[in-house]
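Objective 1b: paired records.
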Amino acid sequence: MPTLILVRHGRSTANTSGLLAGRTPGVPLDDHGRSQAEALPGRLAALPLAALVSSPMQRCQETVEPLREARPELPVHTEERIAECDYGEWSGRKLAELADEPLMTTVQQHPSAAAFPGGESMRGMQARSVEAVREWNLRIEAEHGGDALYAMCSHGDIIKSVVADALGMHLDLFQRIAVGPCSLTVIRYTPLRPFLLRLGETGELDSLAPPEPSPDDQDGDAGQTAEGSQEHTSDATVGGGA
C-alpha cells in the first residue's frame, strides 16, 4: 500500500496572532510561512510523488503552490474531508481567551467527548479525515501501485488524529502528538498495519524514496520491494528494526 506524506501548512497569520483560525476564510501564510512553502519542493525533490492532495483552506493551498509550480505534471486534488476542524463559535477567537472556557479542559484531556458549539465533534473530525486517507490510499495504489508515495497538505489537529489512528491510539491521547507548521509526517500503510516513519520531520527525506528494482525482481510481483529496504517492507523486524 502507499506511503503517505502528511504536510502541515506553513505558519499562518493566525498562528502568529494566537487565533484559532478553524475554517475562517482569508487566513494566509505569514512571511515565514511563505518561506517554508518555498522550501517544500526542495525537501521533497528526491521523492517520486504520485499525487498531491490538499485541504481547501487558503493556508494549505498557499503551502502547496510552490510544489505545484515546481512539478506541473503532478496531479493535484482538493479534498474537503481533510479541511480544518469546524470549531464553530470558537473560530477566529484568541486562544488565550478560550483557555478559560470549561470545554477547553475537555478538548485537552478528553477530546473524544468534545464537541464545539455550532461546530463538529473531535470524533467526527477524526472519522472523516481517516476515511479520506483510507480511500485515497486505495485510489493511489490502484492507479500507481503499492510502492507509490503521495503528499497530503492539511492541519495540525487533522494530522494528529490520523497519526493516532495509525498508531492504534485512542483519540483521548492525540494531544500528546505535536506537528509544527510545514513539518512532514510520514505513514507507510500495509495490509497488516500502518507504520509511522516520520513525525513532525523538518530534515532529510531522501531515504523514503522507493528502492530501484533489482534485475531479479523485474519479472516479479509489482508490490515486492528490494531486499533490505526496511521502510518499505510490509512488517517490522523483531526488535523494531533499529
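Objective 1b, second protein:
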Amino acid sequence: MIYKIFPAILFVLVSFSLSKTSFSEPKNAKPVVYAKTLESSVETKIEMVYNNLHSNKFTLPKLESFAVALKGYYLLKEKGLIKKDILTLVDFSLSSNTKRLWVIDLITGDVLFHSLVAHGRNTGEEFASNFSNSAESYKSSLGFYATGEIYNGKHGMSLKLDGLEKGVNDNARARGVVMHAAEYVSNSFIKNNHRLGRSQGCPAVPVELSKEIISAIKNKSCFFIYHPSRVSKLAAASIS
C-alpha cells in the first residue's frame, strides 16, 4: 500500500515546488522602466530661443510679441512660404518715438538691426491703432509677410512685401506697401515734431539703415507686424 501512496505524495510536493518557482518573484528583481521621449512645448522652445538671443547691446523685443512672431515663422517655414532663417519683427504696440523694428538671425541668435519704423498716417499719431488692407486707406496692415524682391523706386532702393494673411494684409503688393527709406524716420524729426513721421502705409525705415536692412531680409524671409489688438491665425495654429 505504501508503494501506492508514496508516488502520490511525491507528485504533490513536486507540483507545489514548481508552482512556487513559477509565480514567486526573484528577490533582486527591479521594475522595468521604458524610455519615453518627451517633446518640450512650443512655449518652452520659444523661451529658450528668446533667452539665447545675442542682443549686441540692442534692447530685445518683448517676449509677448517675439513669441507670436516665432510661432508664425515656424509654421511658414514648415509650409515653405519662407526660405531664410531671418525674422523681422515690428511691434506696433510701442510708441513710434522708440525703436520698434528688430531683424534677428535665428541661426546665430544675433539681433542684426534695431531701428525706428513708421506706420501709416491714418493708423495713428504717435501710437498705431487703426489698420487696414484696403487701397488708399493710408493705413498699415498687421500680420505675416514674406519679403520679396528689391527694386528702385521714388524712395530709392525698396523692398516688395507679400502679405500672407487673407483679408488682413494680402493686398500689400497691389497697394504698393513696401519697405523703403524716409527722411521723416529719424530722431531729428521726432525732436522737431514730437513724434515720428508717418507713411502711406509702408514700414519706412531710416535712410542710413535702409540699404543694409533691405539687403539682409530680401527674398523670402519672415516679416511680421504685431499689435495686441489682433491674434494672428498663423501664430494661433498648432505647430509641432
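The mean pLDDT is 87. The CA atoms of residues 112 and 132 lie 29 Å apart.
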